[in-house]
Inverse folding.
């Protein structure tokens, strides 16, 4: 795995592990939760199954073209030095053009004209590989950005070495699959650019997405089938509608059912965690505490309890084989507690405490230790977000699908050079 770091205008090229850590933090913020118990392992497993290559940091589909266009432009311009800085400058220019369109989903818009710590070339890099926009290496893996930057930074003499027959000794494969041409406004700082896909772009992206399989499988993913089916979606469309289920194959249809049940059970579990912390503050720490989370548990049960009780917890292993057994134990014990109906949260304290301690160690809040008490005193119940079901990146996938459906080649804005 590539771990070389290359500085660039205040931010660094991160390894894949570092990107995953950054995404975990961002995912917590996006969902408005802190994953104290580990429910987001379910989120990750189902999201990767249904929508491979997506990230909670993704906003609009056209970035999948913007990123390789940036690199293609650097290659055409012959950029060989300070490649990372050139990429960063191009990203800032892109933000400026997008801001003129007043469109939604602009990465770095709040920081402009400064760089953002999560620029699009970083955020979308994994998707480029997953969706075969970025060409693989000889061993089938996909190059890290630092590898690509070093390749672009090779001297002209290195790339022009010829043998005795005046043939290039090393021919470079293109970095990306054959891409549609950028719009005429591309790279022109004074012209607006937006996220509206042109017909050639829609065709290219549809072809790439339709080819996406489930992880470690030759079976097509749910995302692939949704792209091909082109079912009508709007910003309120649910992941578990009959239309979506109808598109899925038998295996994904069963996984969709389990994912909905797991999402409901996790929502209740999140509420239980907040309520347990409030209980500890009130009864163990003798701190005046609000009961917002404790009061919310009953509402969560009323709203999600029916689906939560349907889940066969052991079956989750079919979709998340590497999931920690502690999480499954929490789910099973929470479900057993729901069935009893006595609502005594103390029955769940130890299993939640053990799961949090295993996950967070000295940062855990539930244990009866001085360190945990200190963490509880720092905790603001009023600021603890309301518990919500897992969403499995559906909003990202739905947004991408709607971007494909919204394509309109008749418009003139954003670069109407469509073929």
């Amino acid at each position: 795995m590539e771990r070389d770091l290359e500085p660039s205008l205040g931010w660094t090229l991160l390894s894949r592990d570092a990107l995953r850590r950054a995404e975990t933090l961002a995912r917590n913020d996006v969902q408005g939760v802190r994953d104290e118990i580990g429910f987001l392992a379910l989120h990750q497993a189902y999201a990767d199954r249904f929508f491979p290559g997506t990230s909670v940091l993704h906003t609009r589909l056209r970035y999948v073209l913007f990123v390789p266009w940036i690199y293609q432009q650097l290659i055409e311009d012959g950029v060989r030095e300070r490649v990372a800085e050139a990429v960063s400058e191009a990203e800032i220019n892109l933000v400026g053009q997008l801001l003129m369109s007043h469109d939604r989903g602009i990465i770095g818009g709040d920081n402009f004209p400064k760089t953002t710590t999560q620029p699009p070339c970083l955020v979308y890099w994994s998707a480029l590989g997953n969706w075969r926009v970025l060409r693989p290496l000889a061993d089938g893996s996909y190059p890290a950005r630092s590898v690509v930057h070093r390749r672009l930074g090779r001297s002209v003499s290195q790339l022009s070495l010829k043998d005795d027959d005046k043939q290039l000794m090393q021919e470079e494969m293109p970095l990306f699959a054959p891409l549609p041409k950028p719009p005429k406004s591309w790279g022109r700082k004074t012209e607006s650019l937006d996220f509206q896909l042109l017909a050639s772009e829609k065709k290219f992206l549809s072809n790439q997405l339709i080819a996406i399989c489930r992880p470690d499988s030759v079976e097509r993913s749910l995302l692939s089938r949704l792209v091909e089916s082109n079912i009508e979606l709007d910003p309120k469309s649910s992941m578990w509608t009959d239309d979506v289920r109808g598109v899925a194959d038998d295996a994904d249809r069963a996984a969709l059912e389990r994912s909905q049940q797991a999402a409901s059970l996790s929502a209740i579990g999140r509420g239980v965690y907040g309520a347990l912390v409030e209980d500890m503050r009130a009864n163990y720490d003798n701190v005046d505490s609000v009961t917002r989370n404790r009061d919310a548990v009953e509402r969560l049960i009323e709203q999600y309890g029916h689906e939560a009780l349907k889940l066969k917890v052991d079956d989750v292993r079919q979709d998340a084989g590497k999931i920690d057994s502690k999480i499954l134990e929490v789910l099973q014990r929470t479900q057993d507690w729901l069935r009893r109906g006595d609502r005594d949260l103390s029955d769940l304290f130890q299993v939640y405490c053990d799961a949090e301690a295993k996950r967070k160690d000295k940062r855990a809040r539930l244990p009866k230790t001085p360190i945990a008490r200190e963490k509880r005193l720092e905790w603001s119940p009023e600021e603890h977000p309301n518990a919500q079901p897992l969403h499995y990146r559906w909003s990202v996938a739905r947004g991408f699908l709607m971007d494909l459906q919204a394509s309109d080649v008749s418009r003139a804005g954003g670069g109407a050079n469509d073929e």
The two ends are 39 Å apart (CA to CA). The chain is about 50% helix and 0% strand.
